[in-house]
Specification:
Blueprint lengths: L1 H17 L51 H14 L24 H9 L1 H7 L1 H9 L12 H11 L3
Helix pairs in contact: 2-6, 3-4, 3-6, 4-5
C-alpha cells in the first residue's frame, strides 16, 4: 500500500511540474511582425483579367483614341474627386479596387458600364459579382451619372 501511495505522490509531482500556467496580462498585445502591402497586381486575387467582357449596359465595343483628351480627363478628374475617392484610390485598395491600370484588367466598355450601371452589373455580370465577393459585398452605389460624365471619368482613369 505504501508503494502505491508513493507512486501516486511521485506521479502527482511529475504531472504538476509539467503543467505550465500562462500569465494573463492586462491591456493589449502588439504584434510587431512586418506585413507586405498589397500592390495593384494583388488587389483582385480571385478575379480573372477579362478584356473581352463588355458588361451589362449601354456601352459595347468602346475604344479610346491613342491620345488622352485633356479637357475631358480634367472634367472626369473633378467628378472622380467628388464622388469616387470615398471608395477608390489610384494605387491602393480601399472599399473598392485600386483603379490605376484598370484598362489592363477590364475593357473600356466594362468600366463605363460599371460606372453608369452598377446595379445591373452587380446582378448579372460575372466579373462584377466576383469583385463584389472579393470586396466583402461592398456594393458600388449608382451615382446617376450622365453618359458624358461617365465618358469623362473613363478618360480620367486612363491618366492614372
Amino acid at each position: 500500500m505504501k508503494k502505491v501511495l508513493t507512486l501516486l505522490a511521485i506521479g502527482g509531482l511529475i504531472a504538476s511540474c509539467g503543467d505550465k500556467k500562462e500569465e494573463k496580462k492586462e491591456g493589449f498585445e502588439m504584434n510587431r511582425t512586418k506585413t507586405e502591402a498589397k500592390t495593384t497586381e494583388a488587389v483582385e486575387e480571385g478575379v480573372p483579367v477579362d478584356l473581352d467582357n463588355d458588361g451589362v449596359g449601354p456601352y459595347k465595343d468602346v475604344s479610346f483614341d491613342d491620345a488622352v483628351d485633356a479637357d475631358m480627363a480634367a472634367a472626369g478628374e473633378a467628378k472622380y474627386s467628388a464622388i469616387c475617392v470615398a471608395c477608390h484610390a489610384a494605387e491602393k485598395r480601399l472599399i473598392g479596387p485600386a483603379l490605376k491600370g484598370v484598362y489592363e484588367r477590364r475593357s473600356p466598355a466594362w468600366v463605363m458600364n460599371m460606372i453608369i450601371n452598377p446595379d445591373e452589373m452587380l446582378k448579372k455580370d460575372p466579373i462584377a459579382k466576383a469583385l463584389l465577393k472579393e470586396y466583402n459585398n461592398a456594393i458600388m452605389l449608382n451615382q446617376n451619372l450622365t453618359e458624358d460624365e461617365t465618358r469623362a471619368v473613363a478618360e480620367y482613369l486612363r491618366t492614372l
